Amino acid sequence: MINFSYEDACALMGKDVPVDEFLRRVPLIGSDVGDNVPGRDEMSVEFFPNRPDMYSVEGIARGMRAFLGIEPGLRRYETGDSGVRAVIADDVREICPYFMCAVVRDVRMTDAVIRSMIEMQEKLHVTVGRKRAKLAIGIHDLDRVTPPFTFRAVDPEGIRFVPLAMDEPLSPREVLERSPKGREHAHLVDGTGKFPVIVDAEGEVLSFPPITNGALTAVTADTRNLFIDVTGSDAKAVEGVVNIVATSLAERGGRICRVEMEGAPKSSYPNLEPTERRVSLGACGRFIGRKLTPDKAIECLGRMGMDGKIEGDAITVLIPAYRLDIMHDVDVYEDIAIGYGFENYGGGLHPVVQTCGSLLPETSFSESLRDVMVGLGYTELNTLTLSNRRDEFGISGLPEVDSVSVMNPITEEHASLRSHLMPSLMGILVRNKRRDLPQRVFEVGFVIRDGKAVLHLCALQAASKSSFTEAKSLTESVLREMGVDHSLEPCGYATFVPGRGAFVVSGGERIGIFGEMSPKTITSYGMTHPAIMMEIDLSGIIAGRSGKLVR
Length: 551
What we know:
Layout: E1 2-5, H1 6-13, H2 19-25, E2 31-33, E3 42-47, H3 57-67, E4 79-88, E5 98-105, H4 111-126, E6 135-141, E7 149-154, H5 172-178, H6 180-185, E8 195-199, E9 205-208, E10 212-213, E11 226-232, H7 235-250, E12 255-262, E13 268-269, E14 275-280, H8 281-288, H9 294-303, E15 307-311, E16 314-319, H10 329-340, H11 361-375, E17 379-380, E18 386-387, H12 389-394, E19 416-417, H13 422-431, E20 439-449, E21 452-462, H14 468-482, E22 487-490, E23 496-506, E24 509-517, H15 519-525, E25 531-537, H16 539-542
Parallel strand pairs: 4-7, 4-12, 17-20
Antiparallel strand pairs: 1-3, 2-3, 5-11, 5-12, 6-11, 7-8, 8-9, 9-10, 12-13, 14-16, 15-16, 18-19, 20-21, 21-25, 22-23, 23-24, 24-25
């Protein structure tokens, strides 16, 4: 989720676009709008992972300028010579083969710019950088150090520097052991023997990638000239991220300057010349379901920030250097379709085969079960199927199972598919902990177990007093309505107060748990009130039934 000031976004767009028009149009280029409160300047927008160039307010403003017709077509950035040279030493290539840089001068570092820069950097680390395993970004105050810069390998105790957010010099080994970022990312340099560092002509450390930057070059409100470094294992991704960061800062009025590189694939970076891709207009029309005239196709490309020229049936498309997502012809077709406007497609769906449909057994069962839960005084919720291992297993006290991880998560909060419903519902109660009590919520939804979607029921109650007896009464009421013969066994999960948790056993299988949640679990989630919970696997109950409850 990208958070920004709407006033700042309008200033970057060069036009005061009405909020309702912005919120109506921005999803059409591949985003989801957050819970934006009318009248508030703060806004949040979430872009799909295929558009990392939109991970900042600067990128959003650039994209919307073209899409709304304020400044359509390819955005060109002039680059000058920085007078800065950077070198890749031979000894670091086996550890981290690519190192690319840029300089951006005359940037006015307001609080909004610094916040946007930090947020963009972290989102690029998580997504394109695969949590820094693929690449790492450093943004430095250029005026605090002396070029040329060298990317080289050092022994674990071979150099000392003050890491960012710390106040004493540490060796690389000590950084991994003592600093928060070091402990978090130490696994990325395990087994390398030596560690990569970027140093200036005086031996001062700018960065220990992919772990942390040095405190010496920390960006402040007084910074005006920036040195950007990106290191990693994928040349295309590293260069693309250099271009994204540099052009985003140029949207703030900065001047992009090239860095002379020694030992890199190209002699200098950034290279912001657009790439060309030749595609068929006829193939595009067949792909998107619309036959477009050449002029209309060029107009659609302009709304996506690209230029093009027609040569017979072919379009030669000029693709910006910061667009990492354009890899195949179909990517160009998709952009033309977006530029054409999904709202202009119209029409309806006309089935070619008439069939008699009916509800699936689990759907019919779920609807009946929802009626039962509402009758018991609970409010239904629908939470995200994405979660994270910390909430699922780290603080919940629930047993760890094989979960499905997301390869390219937008945020660390949504890095895996959920294996339980309880952590997601706890997140809702935390956000409402200042509301009146009691709060009773439930969800009937799918979790992922052993690579399969399994239907679960979960209910939570937060109140000034919540006891095991209430949890047992709720669970047995629901099981009675479902007609489930069952027995109870003690449950020793850390989720519950010792002696106040139980398994639900049916047909010799444990199908659920319930109990009074432990203070440790409650406070770990950020709750402040006692709570009880129940979660039941419905798959075995539904199997072989007509799909209705036994009433």
